[in-house]
Design a protein that fits this description.
The protein is an all-alpha fold. The protein is built from 18 helices and no strands. It is found in: Cell membrane.
Length: about 450
Amino acid sequence: MFRLALSSLRYRTGGFVASFLSLFLGAAILMTFASMVDTRLTPGIDENSAFTLTLVAAVVGSWGLIIVAFAVGSTLTLLVRQRHQEMALLRSIGATPAQTVRLVVGEAAVVAVAAGALAIVPSMFGGELLLRLLADTGQVAPGIEHRFGALGLGIGLGITFGAAVLAAVVATRRTAGVSARQAMLAVTENPRMSRKRLVIGLLLLASGLTCGVLTVTVFKDNGLELMAVAGQAGILSSIGLAVLSPALARVVVAVLGNPVRAVTGVGGYLTVLTIRRRTRQFADGLIAVILFTGIATGTLYLQAIENSSVTVKAPEHQNLETLNYVVIGMIAVFAAVMLINTLAAAIIHRRGEFGRQRLAGSTPPQVLGMVSVEGVLLAVTGIVFGSLAAVAAIAPYSFVRTGSIVPGESPLLYGVIVVIAALLTLGTCVAATRRAIRGPAIRAIGA
């Protein structure tokens, strides 16, 4: 099965690239911040510098860990679901469910090892740049040398490998358990969201809202902890809504289905029909838009509120400002790559569907128009729910700092985030669709 896994990767370039990028960036983020722990253990380091390095590794690293693990799991789950017919063929020639699971786990392990190994050098440079940034802003003493040791390496590689293997096992077990006949006959798979996923999503959402309540109660008089707890409110709420994305997609289609069909005509009709039959696939793209919008909006506005409410910046406030801008940049890039990966992989996988539509009479511009309408609906839905997740962090923090739940900062910042999210979503949908409909339609059906 391990040899088969290596052979499979050679013929699945798109899936390999999508999973590799997620694991590579995730490992780089984790090892960059974990290297601060190695640096912290340098003999003779002063107390203030040690505190700052510990704060960077613990607070920012924990945020990155949650987001990276969730993003890697989502990407691998999407790629595994797209292979149900391939797994059915393996079952039909005698492969057992356990062997099928080992095949996919072997692929995930190979990709994780390769991604983690190639992320080591960028992580070393990233850790060096981060330490230099902290030193230039006076948050750590000058002259401290960056160390990239066993802790940074072990944490980054261990978590990346563990997250990939665990995600592959969880995603494959359900698919491998389906009979070969059921998988081969399945044209579209659109099961209801499981109770387990519903419970997990609601618990994450409740945890985020609880952090928002704690922000205005238990931690309202604290300094460093206040923004950390408020930030957790936005992140957990974003992940909670992302987990519930299939249910959110069904609600959106039920509410906006008729207006979309009335406004956009045939393209809208095909879009609504496609989303209803492929709700889970639509929800996969929704996850990335929610995470990008929610985390970027929440964290940026928390820092903007903090900047306007503090007249004289103490060292601890400067620490948080630098940390937040660093984490925003790294995680926003990671979320943007995840968004592009997820949408591109999902749309390119629909080559056969597009080919059948063209053989039935649809022209390439009509197919492109259908996906464009779908992309607009995806962007609007993800931005709305991502913004709601950000409110769970912004409203309580603004109330503590200014006495009002509505921040007084310029809406231009939010507008920039919305534009970026919309451009990434629509641009990826259009570019991936153009590639998917390239060539004869009859050839696409067999792809």
